[in-house]
# Entry
Amino acid sequence: MIHAYAAHKPGQALQPFDYEPGPLGDADVEIEVEYCGICHSDLSMLNNDWGVSQYPLIPGHEVVGTIAAIGRSVHHLKLGQRVGLGWYSSSCMVCEWCMSGSHNLCLTAEGTIVGRYGGFADKVRAHQNWVIPLPEGLNPATAGPLFCGGITVFNPLVQLDIKPTDRVGVVGIGGLGHMALRFLQAWGCDVTAFSSSADKEAEARELGASHFINSRDPASLKAVANSFDLILSTVNADLDWATYVAALRPKGRLHLVGAAPSPVSLPIFPMLLGQKSLSGSPLGSPATTAQMLDFAARHQVEPITETFAFSQINEALDRLRSGKARYRVVLKH
# Structure
């Protein structure tokens, strides 16, 4: 029996919920949950914002724990080993995307909390290929958010071949943005933080930014025209995208990992004349996730977290809803 916390209707508070998981699949792993981060995607799923939620819904996709059971065909993982699990719990392993190492682009990839029960529980299950061992030196109490927010901002560094000599801007200093600043500083880039909160400048610089721009000040934005090789937007907001494209150098890229609510509209001539591009990306493959964890352990990159007991789960969710969390919320057994 697995003991969890579930919502039975959209927007409902989580309540204790027990379920029988059935036999463990041959290629599956059962994780005994130690910590689980809370992500805005959990809130979206609880509210059925994306129309894919099924109830009772057990959220939780930033899991860190130890392996409690393994299927018969699992050979590279061991009982008691500390591992993590993120947004994806399975992929087909036979399509061109899986076979070429881009498992996160698999058209039939299974979300950990989409149509199945997630990590707000004492145990959770997933396919062996998406269960990633934690390297030595990584703090398990803060590692959970790396499996969603962390890989979301790290994956573009790999996919876009970002170099230490690149000048990179990060829009938003929140759950995603603060991790992006830390990764980019460790990557060796010249980093600029864009924030609508002028009082975040000191903190942005502590997190790794060499420069700070108040994004509410049009003059400051215009002053950095032709400055960046990459601008990474981590905010779920509609911005003056044309101004950010103007801030790119020739061959520069505006890359979105935050879900802007409205369609992005851009004038085409600056894109053509500067050979600039607009792109986006989702999380990362198991291999890139493992690479991120090794990099984070090597450079001591960790999210800034607030910790709540699992018994305080609704209080923790309210903390995230309020927008006051600094910067990620983690549940602890």
